[in-house]
Amino acid sequence: MYKIPANPFFPLRKLIYMPECHSTNVIAEQMVKQNSLPEGSVVLAGYQSAGKGQRGNVWLAGAGLNLTFSLFVKPVWLKASEQMYLTKAFSLGVTDWLQRLTGMSVLIKWPNDILVNNKKICGMLIENQLKNNYIAATIAGIGVNINQREFPFVQVTSLAAETDTVYDLAECFFNLMLHIDARYTLLQNKQFSKLQDDYLNNLLGLGDELIFGEGEQQFPGTVLGVDDLGRLEVRTPWGIRFYETKEIPIQWPLK
Ligand code: BTN
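That is the input. Now the predicted structure with biotin docked in place:
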């Protein structure tokens, strides 16, 4: 069990450590349904046997080597139309921490993949429950590759692989949570333009051309920005288009 001291943002944080489970997002969801997870709680796994990724993918992370956890919050003050700001806040929390720890350039691949040296080091699965046009509950599932050195895909990396250092997982977790809390507090204080500016400053490919789409439907596009709804603004061969988060993937490998 990791010891998390009280902090001003989540004084009641409860940490549930599971040496092994299928998916921390699923465990957190079940506990929320049973009303047994206080706001600010984190479900942290040593190993997930069925980690959930975006777009129905699995999230593979070696046992005891990485951080895989789900944070439960109730941003009931945030409009459903502003939910992309949760993505921005959590992405920036991870980015801030990695930048401070390594001094390396860390980029956000829209909407919420975190990259170091053009490789993915962190993925997020943010699941929001809406009620009357507001957000009732959020489970932010975050997977950060820390000490794993071998991966089934070339476009994936870890802290250890990038810096040739072995990290203390508990210390990483504690410091990462502090950075996430700081960004979440900015969101609570409705500092939307600060979050937007910082997100764009760290966004992969802003002003550059990337390849979008899948299979034969690929096309080049220049990233122009991300709007308040979280849509990616792209200059395509057909003019300027706004894409929803699940609508259009950015292709690997990145240039
Ligand atoms: C992605 O990039 O595809 C999203 C990956 C999200 C992985 C994390 S690990 C902790 C949490 N529990 C899950 O089952 N998934 C998320």
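Residues 14-201 form a domain with the BirA Bifunctional Protein; domain 2 fold (CATH 3.30.930.10).
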